Amino acid sequence: MKRAEQLPQYDDAELFTSCIAALSRKPPVVAQGEIDRLRTEIAEAAAGRRFILQGGDCAERFKDCTAKVLKRKLQVLLQMSMVLTYATRKPVTRIGRLAGQYAKPRSANEETVGTRKMPVYRGDLVNGYDAGDEARRPNPTRMLEGYYHATASLNYIRALIEGGFADLHHPEQWDLEFLEKSPEGDSYRRIADAITDAIHFMDTVGATDVAEKLRRIAFYTSHEALLLPYEEALTRMDDNETAYNLGAHYLWLGYRTCTLDGAHVEYLRGIENPIGIKVGPGLDSDTLLALLAVLDPRKTPGRITLITRFGANTVRKSLPSVINSVQKAGHPVLWCCDPMHGNTETASDGRKTRRTANIFSEIEQTFAIHGDSHSCLGGVHFELTGDVVTECIGNNEEQDLCGRYDTACDPRLNAEQSLEMAFLIARLLR
Ligand code: PEP
Ligand code: CO
User: What are the domain boundaries of the chain?
Assistant: First the structure.
């Protein structure tokens, strides 16, 4: 029996068993063929022929499973991916942190709200966000609710894409008003104009297969593989007795559960999906190599993404040696930069926030470090939303954070800040 960290204690064992049994009988959320295709795309990105954009909420909420929220999130991801395609001159694969990003690791079991101590919120898949012992009691029926919300979300995303979200491919129809306010507005506008020109050119010469490719995009889902009973119930065997997690295309191992002999590693070892590993200051190279040996023993292209999250102040010191040891060990990993989780700080009013300047600085340094190491940064990972929130400091000042601070966990980039990140990357790479 492996040690399982971060898992809730359910007090009704019978209810738990019946929920898991019900979940195990449900049709999968995604299909195996899609997972295999994503593995190939990740292998291409690792080899420098593709770029990966992963983004979405820190903690997705059931109440955010609405047409408006999902559509805006898809919109911002698609717009960013257009800019990144232009920036990298590579096809971009989009992976949403959505349709299942409902469980959160926490550093403490309890928190104080007002003057009351209570169990901590662990994500909608586990307990309620509202304050109070009853809301915070882990409830196994939430796993079934999670499944239904994931399927409803992904169904709508797929329908939007199938229905042709084509106008999104035309930057002149994007809401780029914020460019006017930005000191960098002119240079972003030139990038948007260049994308518009390229698309018009293809339309004019009748490059219909290209236009069709832009219209019919693949979209993948991901979440942290945290609540193991849920993940196991959605894990199914294919005809060759190979196990796939069919609750999402891509799963990642969180920074707080990457214990070598822990249950999360043991679970991920057994499934065929592509896997992300969060790599930060507390994970030394020896442990990382040991994790790679367990999770990728055959050194399979596309199997592992190393999602580095060191923070703008630490990345220069820490990342080069990590790259060096992975190169020496010969694992064909995809390197992806999560510039969010190493750059979290506490604002003067006590809220968690992040500065877009630090977020971009980590990206910029990470590209440079990979260049110096003859390695390739093949992806970026953001916490973002399509909604107008004031959670990160950039186009919001610190004193504005109280305006629309909606996140259930970490602060997210709003739509403008997200698109601005894509423009900044474009300017850096072009
Ligand atoms: C996350 O991605 O929301 C998260 C908890 O990150 P990490 O495990 O890197 O801290
Ligand atoms: Co987070």
Answer: 13-166+216-429
Residue type at position 21? A
Task: Please give the DSSP secondary-structure letter assigned to residue 27.
Answer: P
Query: Would you say the pTM of this structure is higher than 0.90?
Result: yes
CA of 105, closest atom in ligand 1: 5
Distance 100 CA to ligand 1 centre (A): 15
Q: Is the CB of 415 under 6 A from ligand 1?
A: no
Q: Ligand 1 mean position to 259 CA, how many Å?
A: 15
> Cα–Cα distance between 269 and 251 in angstroms, integer?
12
41/92 Cα distance (integer angstroms) = 9
What separation in Å is there between the alpha carbon of 77 and the centre of ligand 2?
A: 17
If you write DSSP's letter for every residue of 122-175 in order, what string do you get? --TTTS-SSSSTTTTS--THHHHHHHHHHHHHHHHHHHHHHT--GGGG-GGGS-
Length of the chain equals 430
Which ligand has the shortest distance to the CA of 384?
2
Cβ(309) – ligand 1 distance below 6 Å? yes
Q: Is 58 in the pocket of ligand 1 (CB under 6 A)?
A: yes
Mutate to test the pocket of ligand 1, among 106, 122, 255 (most ligand atoms within 8 A of CB): 255
Q: Quick one: CATH architecture of 13-166+216-429?
A: Alpha-Beta Barrel (3.20)
The closest residue, in CA terms, to atom 3 on ligand 1 is: 58
Please report, in tens digits, the pLDDT of each residue of the chain (430 residues total).
789 999 999 999 999 999 999 999 999 999 999 999 999 999 999 999 999 999 999 999 999 999 999 999 999 999 999 899 999 999 999 999 999 999 999 999 999 998 999 999 999 999 999 999 999 999 999 999 999 999 999 999 999 988 877 566 677 777 778 777 877 788 888 888 888 888 888 878 877 676 666 666 789 999 999 999 999 999 999 999 999 999 999 999 999 999 999 999 999 999 999 999 999 999 999 999 999 999 999 999 999 999 999 999 999 999 999 999 999 999 999 999 999 999 999 999 999 999 999 999 999 999 999 999 999 999 999 999 999 999 999 978 888 899 999 999 999 999 999 999 999 999 999 8
